[in-house]
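Morning. Coffee machine broken again, so started the prediction first thing and wrote up yesterday's gels while waiting. Chain of 119 residues, entered below exactly as on the submission form.
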Amino acid sequence: MTADTVRTVLPARALNGETPTWCPDRRRLFWVDIREPALHAFDPATGRDENWVMPAWIGSYGLTDRSAVVALRTGLFLFSQRAPGYKRKLVTSHALSIGPDPDTCPSSFITIKATQESH
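Came back before lunch.
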């Protein structure tokens, strides 16, 4: 194989695969399939792709030490990959304002503003 050879390492057949993020601590490539909807973690050493199906479309995620914050169509949730489940709903979808913010960024970017949900 030459340096410019490209090969498929994961024939994912994703409906809408996005947001690839390498996690050096876990040695996994995290990504989402928005419309499956699922959060994925690909292990290049084994070729295994682990996934967690979400109850609503997933738009993004943020990794923490032991879990992830997932942005679903229905709100922001704290999600555990070790014991799959939604520990806490952080923000409801009604508290989210999604769209261009001309005061802080160019219109080609999307900003998400969240308000804290009262308990």
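The chain is about 0% helix and 50% strand. Going to sketch it on the whiteboard this afternoon.
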